[in-house]
């Protein structure tokens, strides 16, 4: 079955880029509506922005969506990951600014809000995108690949010179509550030198050690330290989950990423949909639906770290 949120959700906080407070509300949407954003502060032009791969615009640090009128909304990946991990396929998201609140830098605040509001089953089969053959994009030593599998799984590896991060790899089948339990509270991460460089360029004005894991020469500067010893690669998997959700349905396939980011995952979706022989739409059978991300997820699946 398709799912939407059962009740309205309201969240607010500073945006990553501007540091200005942003208010966001998530509303139930009918079956087959998909997920879309509405800029409530836009009164000239189309304020509706579909949450689809074809509406992704190149940007630094995050995933940015825009429509044909040039109206945009950024930093959507954590909310999209929360929707994917909770099985939400239909939702209307209203936001009163050009970016979503960064909150704690993970997807957990969104997941908690969705589970508190409740999840409503809809009288329509869940639409999935079945991967029929391997599709891959590369950039130097980095790559992202999709290949056939019975359900969504993610295998990700990262390599950083920073001693506090280093080389990390993790693989998970994203069935049932795996995203919520294993990935949802993993925060974005960066080096202190990167933070200073971004500040100097007027970027990431809302970024702090309270909403990111900041590291410097082997030391974790964020109060409380890491939530997981491999939090960095878990967050990259979280980002990939959110970016894959922009396919417009659940992907039935295995995603493998090495040193990949938002732009590469979006490039992979372009390559996928450019090849009609590589995929097909399917209505999930009851057995497939039982193994989708978010199937049967409850607050008990939330990580306790």
Q: Please identify the top-level CATH class of the largest domain.
A: Alpha Beta
Counting structural domains, the number is 2
Distance between the termini: 32 Å
Beta strand count: 20
CATH architecture of the largest domain: 2-Layer Sandwich
The total of helices stands at: 7
Major sheet: 7 strands, mixed
User: Helical content, roughly?
Assistant: 10-25%
Cα gyration radius (Å): 18 Å
User: Helix and strand string, N-terminal first?
Assistant: EEEEEEEEHEHEEEEEEHEHEEHEHEH
CATH homologous superfamily heading of the largest domain: lpxc deacetylase, domain 2
- Note poorly predicted spans: none
CATH fold-level topology of the largest domain = lpxc deacetylase, domain 1
SS content category: alpha+beta
- Estimate the mean pLDDT confidence: 93
Strand residues, percent:
25-35%
**Bulk shape:** globular
Write a compact overview of the structure shown.
The chain has 305 residues and is of the alpha+beta class. It contains 7 helices and 20 strands. It folds into 2 domains: 2-122, lpxc deacetylase, domain 1 (Ribosomal Protein S5, domain 2, 2-Layer Sandwich), CATH 3.30.230; 127-301, 2-Layer Sandwich (lpxc deacetylase, domain 1), CATH 3.30.1700.10.
Structure description:
Helix 1 (77-86) crosses helix 2 (108-117), helix 1 packs across helix 5 and helix 5 (231-244) runs parallel beside helix 6. Strands 11, 12, 13, 14, 15, 19 and 20 form a seven-stranded mixed β-sheet that branches. A five-stranded mixed β-sheet has the order 2-3-9-4-5. The chain is globular and about 50 Å long. The protein has helices at residues 77-86, 108-117, 178-183, 192-200, 231-244, 262-273, 286-290; strands spanning 2-5, 9-14, 21-27, 35-39, 48-50, 56-57, 64-66, 72-74, 91-95, 119-122, 127-131, 135-139, 142-148, 153-159, 167-173, 189-191, 213-216, 219-220, 250-258, 279-283. The protein folds into two domains: 2-122, Ribosomal Protein S5, domain 2 (2-Layer Sandwich), CATH 3.30.230; 127-301, 2-Layer Sandwich (lpxc deacetylase, domain 1). Helix content is 22%, strand content 31%. It is built from seven helices and 20 strands. By secondary structure, it is α+β, with helices and mostly antiparallel strands.
